[in-house]
Amino acid sequence: MGNEVKARAKKIKRIRLEREKAVFMRLGAKLRAYLFSGILVTAPVAITFYMAYKFIFWVDRIVNQILPPQYKFDNVFPYAIPGLGLIVLILALIIVGMFTAGFLGGFLVRLGEWIVNKVPLISSVYSLLKQVFETIFSNKTQAFSKVVMLEYPRKGIWILGFVSAELKGEIKEQFEEKMLNIFIPTTPNPTSGFLIFVPKKDTVELNMTVEEGIKFVISGGLVEPSKMPKKK
């Protein structure tokens, strides 16, 4: 009789410990889920503000070093004003843009470009950088026009690409069908990648915007676009 009571007591104690363990495990799982949710909410905002903070102070420091001693921020203002250098830089760029839009400014720009184009190596670098910035900031063209899917590197495997333009010039003459210039980005850095030429009929155009496609690539497929793909 005594042994049965002891066995029953041990069984009750074991059940109670298992229940307490299950409760603590559920509590730990919830706390872990709340922690991950908190990180997911705050991390992007915190990192964005931190990068903006670092960029603003970096511009302030550079601009302050360029200014003459009598116009340095430390000598003009009794305390530091974050973002003042960025404002000065934007105003300076606007003034430069206004000047180059005039006859004299345009002449000086063309003269400077002519001199740079005569210098070996530097001319190639300048030409490349000018084309890149004109593509990015031009109002007449966009860096990428649409997002497509294509089978690469073999049939049955699909990859996301950005269409820059239809193929033209000497390379186009090598093909009989309509070809597209497609930039294939890498994850998580979409600024790196490679260019391929693909027949237009072998691509699937998507409804998502270029911005949504870039977010999709950066996140490694975690941030899904709000629109569904549309096959043509």
Which labels suit this protein?
232 residues, alpha+beta, SH3 type barrels, 5-stranded antiparallel sheet, 7 helices, 14% strand, flat, disordered C terminus
Describe this protein's structure.
This protein is an alpha+beta fold. The protein folds into 3 domains: 1-78; 84-137; 146-218, SH3 type barrels (Roll). The chain has 7 helices and 5 strands; from the N terminus they run αααααββαβββα. It has a 5-stranded antiparallel sheet, with helices on one face. The model is unreliable at 228-232 (pLDDT under 50).
Summarize the structure.
By secondary structure, this protein is of the alpha+beta class.
Low-confidence stretches: 228-232
Task: Tell me how many strands there are.
Answer: 5
Name the strands of the widest sheet in spatial order: 4-3-2-1-5
Q: What's the main sheet like?
A: 5 strands, antiparallel
How many distinct folded domains? 3
Structural class: alpha+beta
Strand content: 5-15%
The global form is: flat
State the distance separating the first and last CA atoms: 81 Å
**Roughly what percent helix?**
55-70%
Name the helix and strand elements from N-terminus to C-terminus, one letter apiece: HHHHHEEHEEEH
What's the total helix number?
7
